Amino acid sequence: MKPIQVGLLGIGTVGGGTFNVLQRNQEEIQRRAGCGIRIAMVADLDTARARRIVGDSAQIVSDAREIIANPEIDIVIELIGGYGIAKALVLEAIAAGKHVVTANKALLAVHGTEIFAAARAKGVVVAFEAAVAGGIPIIKALREGLTANRIEWIAGIINGTTNFILSEMRAKGLDFDVALKEAQRLGYAEADPTFDIDGIDAAHKATIMSAIAFGIPVQFDKAYVEGITRLNAADIRYAEQLGYRIKLLGITKRRSGAVEGIELRVHPTLVPAKQLIANVEGAMNAVMVQGDAVGSTLYYGKGAGAEPTASAVIADLVDITRLHTADPDHRVPHLAFQHGALQDTRILSIDEVVTAFYLRLQVADQAGVLARITAILAESDISIDALLQRESAEGEAQTDVIILTHDTVEGRMNKAIAQMQALPTVLAPIVRIRKEELA
């Protein structure tokens, strides 16, 4: 059988990894796919670099549209990134009747609905396992392995840069700025780390997982996003004393009852130290999925890097190769649910989210302060789960009060925090971090 001909757009870190893994494991991959898979063309502005990587095994061009226009190319791999030219090229490849493999989570989180509709109309596949959690096959697990389940919630460490920073802060007692510089020195963080540390990258991935889990359109603009830039080493230390660790989690959850909808949020989160996901350190990723039939499942591995991401890209190539001649109506739908079965379930605002909270208040060390604070929480119908008060040093006029609450509506907590902040004995902005038991 003639090998499947692949065109690669962009041969940077992941592109180079994809080429190398495909070459190294060609025999094994062919045994699984049923025929050979060959990267026949590579498009990159740096043609000299591309030639160094692929040698004479593929045609090198500087214009990606030459690949799209080539009738011999069956599959286009998009590894350019971003929303701009990448979107145009993906849509042009679809229009040309070519299947697409992409690792571009930003593109799919923002424009996925348009892209999937175009692919469905043309009868081609857009595969994107590499867009979420690198080498961890979480998309396949959600779309296929857990298809019998009603997914209840997903919580994931899906950005390795921020997890590395938080691990350094916890292990070495570093402040955020120091840990970030260390991450940049070691190559875990970019020179401009904004997308990572502000939670945007994680929110792109959480948006995609939410759509697949609950059968809704991708809606990145409705996600609540909060990064780790305001975290303090003191809060990581206090959380540890209370039996918790702080992780940046992407969380999406189905809500029913009086308020129905989908929670979609990314923020620093206290997680019980006994949970496996709380012990994921360094640049590793992990995703927990709660299904009604299977219960809790955990997926762990490398979330970035040349070959881990290449593993996911090539898995998509194999899937498409197997389905290349299949009736489009009998393929696994892009977002797991059949066309026409997606529901426009409301994404809840952050004020409607129900979760527990960690509060740190810097207060005057005098009688009656703690009583007034707990009274405000009681009047707001917010119950306390645990309380920790740092013992003041001799002559010190202020102290920290740490409070863990039970579950409450975020909007109610906001009002209580505003009341506490207005007290003259509260001496600094109150620190608030959400808490999830993940039980």
Task: Write up this protein.
There is one protein chain. The protein is α/β, with parallel strands linked by helices and 439 residues long. It has 3 domains: 4-138 and 306-330, Rossmann fold (3-Layer(aba) Sandwich), CATH 3.40.50; 144-302, 2-Layer Sandwich (Dihydrodipicolinate Reductase, domain 2), CATH 3.30.360; 354-435, Alpha-Beta Plaits (2-Layer Sandwich). 37% of the residues lie in helices and 24% in strands. Strands 7, 8, 9, 10, 11, 12, 13, 14, 15, 16 and 17 form an 11-stranded mixed beta sheet that branches. Strands 3-2-1-4-5-6 form a 6-stranded parallel beta sheet, sandwiched between helices. Helix 1 crosses helix 13, helix 8 crosses helix 9 (176-185) and helix 14 (369-379) runs antiparallel to helix 15. It is elongated. The protein starts with a strand and ends with a strand. The relative contact order is 0.13. The model has no long low-confidence stretch (mean pLDDT 94).
